[in-house]
Hints:
Blueprint: E1 2-13, E2 17-24, E3 31-41, E4 47-50, E5 56-62, E6 65-77, H1 115-121, H2 129-142, E7 144-145, H3 156-162, E8 164-165, H4 167-180, E9 185-192, E10 201-208, E11 211-215, E12 226-232, E13 241-243, E14 249-260
Parallel strand pairs: 7-8
Antiparallel strand pairs: 1-6, 1-14, 2-5, 2-13, 3-6, 4-5, 9-10, 9-12, 10-11
Helix pairs in contact: 2-4, 3-4
Amino acid sequence: MWLRTGCKLSFTIDSPTPFILMLRPRSGAQQWVARESYTLTPSVQVQEYTDAYGNLCQRLTAPPGEFSIQTSADVLTDQIISVKPGAPYDEVQTLPTDVLIYLLPSRYCESERFSDMASEIVAGVEPGYDQVACINDWIRREVRFNPASPHVQMAATEVNEQREGVCRDLAHLGIALCRALSIPARIVAGYLHGLEPMDLHAWFEAYVGGRWYTFDATQDRPRGGRVTVGYGRDAADVAIFTQFGPALALHEMQVTVALLEGAPV
């Protein structure tokens, strides 16, 4: 399916402010970016680089005054995500080297604190994909997805205590529980067609059966129509913008995802 994604961010800036942005999707095995626009107002010099996780990042210094970033992309992506019940657990010693980092505890995913809980949730379930699906179903039942949650920047332990959170929070809990079982898991940031309310979205992927599979506890069924912008250990690695210096006023954020009929021209 073809999707047109869009994002607009507007700031009021008091003094020259360094930014790192992560707003450009990249083509890969699961998506193809056919058209893209990226507009900064006012226009400033930008240095682009690829971070340690392969994400496209833009580095710039915004001038004082009103500053906005507007992006748009036409992307071919899967209408249905892959599912593979019964896909086996991958022994740690057989994992690709670049996957190993997703076994370790991280800032928002303190997996070392979830060993007993994870084992209880998946008791009697075949190791591998079925364990991750069990974790995802448990989060959907036990943790309320609340896009207006007043809790901010929660780690997995806090999400487990509050039993509610935004999409990023549910993903953090899923990642921590998977890693506690020695299943590699990573966060994904991007867009989801048909998300209500519309916003940038986060979910997680787990590595089983020799590949990554998508899991999203905010949805009642496996759903495609996803455009990935960034991968990382947790939300600290996939922030759409990171600003350095005094706190800024983000006074506008607009996100759109529209279905396109046929390939864009």
